[in-house]
Amino acid sequence: MDHIECISPMVARWILLISISLVTMGIMYSNDTLPAIAPFIFDVFETVYSKEEFEYYYNLLCSLVSVPNTIFPLLSGVLIDSVSLYYLSSIFIGFLITGQFILSLGFSMKSLSIMLLGRCIFGLGSESSLITFNSLLIRYFPEWEVALALSICLAIGRIGSVLSDMLSPMIATILPVYWTLVFGLGILVIGSISVLISLNKYYKECLNMDKIRNNSEIIVNSNNLKRLILDNGNLVSSNDEIISKRSNLKYRITLITRKIGELGRLYWYLAILGLLSYSVIMPFNYIAGPLIVETRYKDISTVTARQYAGIIMSLLYAVSVLVLPILGWIVDRVGERCRLLTISVGLLAIAHTLMLKLHPAISITILGFGYTLFATVYWPCISISVPSNLLGTALGVATCIQNIGFIVTPIEVAFLHSTFRSYFVVEAFFLFISIMALIMCCLVTALDKELCGRLDFATNTNVNISNDLEHLIIQSSYKKNKIKLEELISYKSGNNLNINRTFINSPLSTTDDSDSDQNVKSSVFINAKTTLQIADYPVNILREIVTST
Predict the structure, then answer these.
(1) Which pLDDT does position 93 carry in this prediction?
(2) Range in 49-63, 73-87, 184-198, 318-332 the model is least confident about
(3) How confident is the model at residue 291 (pLDDT cuts 50, 70, 90)?
(4) 394 with 343: CB under 8 angstroms?
(5) Which among 426, 450, 474 is the end of a domain?
(6) Predicted model pTM
(7) In terms of domains, do 286 and 413 share one?
(8) What span, in angstroms and rounded, lies between the C-alpha atoms of 238 and 403?
(9) Residue-averaged pLDDT of the chain
(10) Kind and range of the H or E element at 189?
């Protein structure tokens, strides 16, 4: 804890956010490089494959990164709930760097099989690392800053997508094409080093304590109050039975099944909505370049047409870079997430309706606004819809479901285009998926009303002291040796984490010599379902709530 004492929690978490954003930028640059340089890839392999064969292998190359992500994020999500995030981050970062290196090597050798291997390894780390990073941000940012933090991370990450769409065609024109992939590898290496340094310096000890707590499963007697005390880094129980971690496969499978079974109906509606909505964004980006060239720039030189297409494609993510932080700040304070989800999906449908009727720059800009708004609102909805102890599992399952769309949609698009030889049919397919997503938005809204507006709740109207207050207790215990960490705040199972909070009226164990035989009880704990206004409870008052001096 010496590192944390040297710097405030606020500064530490913003340093962590910037570091994570750099890695996210490298991931998104690497993911979007292939669509941006698709014509150049064809030039390299045109002596080996026909155009039809190349389209098949190209879509396979794009979709293969999603194959491991149909299962692996689920496993990583469960691991997030039970293993130190520091070590998970290190493992997933290793997959990213190794995969991108093999992809670059395979391209330089003109070996498609090596490139496919690299994409597969990269896929093992891409979505899983993003889930881990999101869990870190949700863990260390207070609830009224979560959407803002996630939006800033995604906005900086999308700078990588913009750079990929704008710079990759230029780099491929001047230098050998594989240098576009090497550039993405460089961003990944720089960002990964900064993340590991940040975690090691500020959060490693705290994350290891999370691992100790999460690796024990507590059985609570319904007539007794659950009480855990962190004693010299080890968990002990006063009157509850603790079952130690079991590493056998059967137990792990049972644990995963149980956690998935605890995810509620609202979560599953949101997961299906994410599958449909992201299927009309990311897979479209794979074919946006050829679509723009064939429908708008047939009559100009190929090099110029590719550069124009790259600039237009960059508008999709340039919008994100500009407005994501603003939208994140607004969503944190306004709420109304169901309405915003519906508006965002409506923008996606409008964009695909107009794609072949208006200039693609206009349609892609509309698509960018829809994507930006959806991404800003969707992931906080996932975190709100599940208990905090299931967050990693929830993110993992949602990511697995989305990657099914990332695999199936590009293959279906390639089949439709090769069969009908028209992008009109392709856009009709995207529009159909958008309409299905709108129907899911209506179902989510109806269910949320049954649950008393869980998603529409504005987080700035209550205080979530779960993260910062816990850190305050830990820090105080190390500094003053007076307070030992307890489960101070618990949530009612399945209820809204933002609305229903239970403050346990338990004693705070002390080691002060003057009253070593006494348990000092706080007199200011409150009942469940009580709302605390932030303005009424500044940090110094919250400190008095926890500590007894």
Answers:
(1) 92
(2) 73-87
(3) confident
(4) no
(5) 450
(6) 0.64
(7) yes
(8) 44
(9) 73
(10) helix 179-198
- Write down the residue that tokens 């304070």 correspond to: 333
Q: Are residues 443 and 532 in the same domain?
A: no
Please tell me which of 218-232, 373-387, 493-507 the model is most confident about, judged by mean pLDDT.
Answer: 373-387
Residue 46, number of CB atoms within 10 A of its CB: 11
Calculate ∠ Cα 205-13-480, nearest 5°: 50
Question: Comparing C-alpha atoms, which of 168, 385, 409 is closest to residue 262?
Answer: 385
Pairwise CA distance, residues 408 & 412, whole Å:
6
Instruction: Produce one character per residue of 106-115: b if its CB has 16 or more CB atoms within 10 Å, e if not.
Output: bbbeeebebb
Dihedrals phi, psi of 217, to nearest 5 degrees:
-105, 130
Which helix H or strand E contains 234, and what residues bound it?
strand 234-237
Name, in order, each residue with C-beta under 8 angstroms of 468's C-beta and a sequence gap of 6 or more.
9, 142, 539
C-alpha to C-alpha distance for 203 and 484, rounded to whole angstroms: 19
- 535 and 409 fall within a common domain: no
Rg (the chain; Cα; Å): 25
Gap between the Cα atoms of 530 and 342, Å rounded: 30
The answer to whether residue 230 scores a pLDDT higher than 60 is no
Q: Which residue has the higher pLDDT, 292 or 49?
A: 292
Model confidence pLDDT, tens digit, residues 140-158: 787 777 778 888 888 888 8
Reduce the secondary structure of 248-310 to three states and give it as a string: CHHHHHHHHHHHHHCCCHHHHHHHHHHHHHHHCCHHHHHHHHHHHHHHHCCCCCHHHHHHHHH
